[in-house]
Amino acid sequence: MNIIPLTSDYLSDLARLNHQLLEDEGNTKSLSTEYLYQRMKNWLENKQFFGFGGLNDDGQLVAYLLACYESESIVYVRQLITERNYRRQGYASTLLKHLEKYLGADQQIKLDVLMHNKNAIYFYASQGYKPFYMAMVKTT
């Protein structure tokens, strides 16, 4: 796998994968690929956001990690997704390790996981992440 910095060159692929992420989360909002494209473009133009992509052997973007700085010592992973056909091949763990190396020492990495996403919970636990808080919601 080749790791690349996320740039606007990959916006179409990022929007496609972001749409897949929303589907996998069971998100009921109907967000168009065009909307996701523009949202990703806005994030990449914001200097607080940065990320890395994973390219397969054919040079296709099949995974990405998007993060932002919450403070000088805290980074929030906003999105991490691997295309369904490429899961369990090390893309996500490689991107997380790359992020850790990129950040260096004394940085805290935070991320959110939906409670029903047991696979993600087990995956992040296997990478050394521990539960920190639980948010609760009610729809009226």
Structure notes:
The protein contains four helices and five strands, in the order E-H-H-E-E-E-H-E-H. The protein is an alpha+beta fold and 140 residues long. It has one domain: Aminopeptidase (3-Layer(aba) Sandwich). The protein has a five-stranded mixed sheet, sandwiched between helices. Helix 1 crosses helix 2. The model has no long low-confidence stretch (mean pLDDT 90).
Question: What key phrases describe this protein's structure?
Answer:
140 residues, alpha+beta, Aminopeptidase, five-stranded mixed β-sheet, 5 strands, globular
Give me the secondary-structure category: alpha+beta
Query: From the alpha-carbon coordinates, what is the Rg to the nearest angstrom?
Result: 15 Å
Can you list the strand order of the major beta sheet? 1-2-3-4-5
Overall spatial form: globular
Q: What's the CATH superfamily, by name?
A: Gcn5-related N-acetyltransferase (GNAT)
The CA-CA distance between the termini, in Å, is 45 Å
Q: Count of DSSP E strands? A: 5
Order of helices and strands: EHHEEEHEH
Estimate what percentage of residues fall within beta strands.
15-25%
**Share of helix among residues?**
25-40%
Number of helices: 4
Give me the CATH fold name.
Answer: Aminopeptidase
**What is the CATH domain class?**
Alpha Beta
